[in-house]
Amino acid sequence: MPVAATMTYIAYTAGAIICALAALWVARKGDEQRIDRMAAVAALALSANWCFAAASFEPGQPIVQLTEIARNLAWLFVLFRLFANDGRDESLRLVRPAVIALAFVEVLQLVLVVLSRRYGIGPEVALVIFETSTMFRMLVAIGALVLLHNLYLGAATSSRQLLRWPAAALAALWAFDLNYYTIAYLTSAVPAEMVALRGLAAGLIAIPFALGFNSQSAELEFRPSRAVTFRFLSLLVIGGYLALMLALARWLNMLTGDMARLTQVGLIIAAGALALVWMPSKRLRGWLRVTAVKHLFKHRYDYRNEWIRFTNTIGRTGFDETSLHERVIKALADITDSPAGLLLMPEEDGSLELTADCHWNSFELPPRGFPLALATILEREGLIVDFDEIREGVDYYGECALMPDSLREDTRAWAAVPLQHFDRLVGVVVLARPLVARKMDWEDFDLLGVVGRQLASYLAEQTGQAALLEASRFDEFNRRMAFVLHDIKNLSSQMSLLLRNAEKHADKPEFRKDMLVTLRNSADKLNALLARLGRYGVQSRDAYSKFDLVTSARAVIDRCGRTHPVSILRAEKAKVSGDQEAFEQALAHLVQNAIDASEPDGPVMLEVFSDGLSGNVQVIDNGHGMSAQYVRNKLFKPFVSSKEGGFGIGAFEARELIRAMGGRLDVESREGLGTRFTVSMPLHATAQMIERGTQPPKRETA
């Protein structure tokens, strides 16, 4: 057997084996979610069949040509499925005619095969058929490359990562065919070396194509390891050092006499000493490693584009009513291609609670989020939490034990980025895992840390502006109320005077009776209003009394339950210390809000119980519920109300009244599920213990 025929047989046999193994690997190990997987298996199998036929029969035989036609049609169908896999359904209408046209040109090869078998006896006819077939194959290769170019350039960033390996393999396939048939068309013949090389090329192209169907194919990159790069750079430094020494020695050879020998010996001694001191240096090796990583590797991020996108996201205004909190999450999530995120911000006790979310549709995060101890660690250390390390048990400052189980168990949670402003923790953004999963590296930590500090400044600025706006509104409210109080006081004095005069000078008994009743009712109402308006100051503890929460809860139910079903599900005696009238007023506000948020027949339920240290009253409804953003930013803000015509001061007044008595008001709400208000008041015994502990010791007298 001639050498060329032997090489052709070996190359096509190797190509057939590789293509068959690649088809089997994609069928068993490929990503099952890709809709083009079976098309890829068929194309690889037909490529193996073509290589087997080319190795078994002479070139130009009909079976070889027919298997090649089937292979080419299969690869065109794979290209079409890649467009569909990218998700651009609108593009399929434009691509489908082009793919059908290329397939039609390829099918014309069948006509040429029939003509060559029937009428290809003469050399002139055979040459025409050969050139026509070659030209058709060139057209198919050119058209396929154009479609492949449009597919890759028009794909999204995440899609490009999935298309990278299959697109590169198909580009190599059709580029090789284009060069192969171009040479054949120009020379009217195909060199034997090109024929053998084509079989081997088919097998080599099948390898990266099959790798592209791995579920982690987007993470595969053709790049040397950092250790190899560092060693290569070290060898370059050593080689440059030796070259410099050789050049100096060569230059010193031009000198003559003892001076030249002395200079050479001195140079050798100095070079050896420098090498012994310089090469083992940890500082040098560390600098060399950092230089290799930062300058010989392409950065993950295009910082210019990231900064432009970040600025546009934060400064975006429009009619979508996207809050700054949601824009903060999106600005940070876009950098890492995270599909969702959460924003947690500090509560009054220092713990972090859920403030806003972006596409994170889950009710599993506890309302208090991160505890105070974890927030303290993040603020002190500026630590960016890698949840994969948390799940592996890696602990740096004790944050592993403090992380909420809901985030630890949720595999979507990928990173927690603290937002620090002047060493003060403004919030924490929890990012979801990117669509293409990867491990965080030093560049992620650097960029997320810088962006987190920038976002913290925006949030701090918004908080300052909100505080100034609230202060100005309170100032206006106080000015108005000063006039109202003045007028009401004057009216009360006048009516009281009128009442005293009427008692002295009215002669008619009926008139006196009616006037007295009217004036007395008016005076009582005005005095009650004055007492209510003056209750916002700090109350004296001398006015506190011991009362039962169950009694107050039933009183509120009797008052508010006349027009709406309100019931008490749990009634445990809990004696607390405070202003009973103020407490019932605050509880009435909460019950009325629950009634307003519920359907006409939707029940409102109360639970009264004690946990040993405090007495608790829970107001529960199954109404519309509130978003975390509304609870955080609007629920306890005066002059902000979701009810038409509402003044927006009920919830604020309830919280202030409860706080004034040393209590606490918490709220849990989910949109569409309902709301739970929890009022916690220190028990009477607990309050007495705290009061005795805070009193200064009595001074002993002689």
List keywords for this structure.
702 residues, alpha+beta, Rhopdopsin 7-helix transmembrane proteins, 23 helices, 12 strands, 63% helix, elongated, disordered C terminus
Q: Could you tell me the CATH topology label of the domain at 3-219.
A: Rhopdopsin 7-helix transmembrane proteins
Spatial shape: elongated
* Total E-strand runs: 12
Instruction: Give the low-confidence spans.
Output: 217-226, 696-702
Secondary structure category: alpha+beta
Largest sheet: 5 strands, antiparallel
Transmembrane segments: 6-27, 39-57, 94-115, 135-153, 165-183, 195-213, 233-253, 259-279
Keywords: ATP-binding, Kinase, Membrane, Nucleotide-binding, Transferase, Transmembrane, Transmembrane helix
Catalytic activity: ATP + protein L-histidine = ADP + protein N-phospho-L-histidine
InterPro entries: 2C_sensor_his_kinase, GAF, GAF-like_dom_sf, HATPase_C_sf, HATPase_dom, His_kinase_dom, Sig_transdc_His_kin-like_C, XrtA/PrsK
Strand and helix map with partners:
Elements: H1 3-29, H2 37-56, H3 62-85, H4 89-119, H5 123-153, H6 157-187, H7 192-211, H8 226-252, H9 258-278, H10 282-295, H11 303-314, H12 324-336, E1 341-346, E2 352-358, H13 372-381, E3 385-386, H14 387-392, H15 399-402, H16 405-409, E4 413-421, E5 424-432, H17 442-505, H18 509-533, E6 545-548, H19 549-560, E7 566-571, E8 575-578, H20 580-597, E9 604-610, E10 614-621, H21 628-633, H22 650-660, E11 664-670, E12 674-682, H23 684-694
Parallel strand pairs: 7-9
Antiparallel strand pairs: 1-2, 1-5, 3-4, 4-5, 6-8, 9-10, 10-12, 11-12
Helix pairs in contact: 1-2, 1-7, 2-3, 2-7, 3-4, 3-5, 4-5, 5-6, 6-7, 8-10, 11-12, 12-17, 17-18, 19-20, 20-22
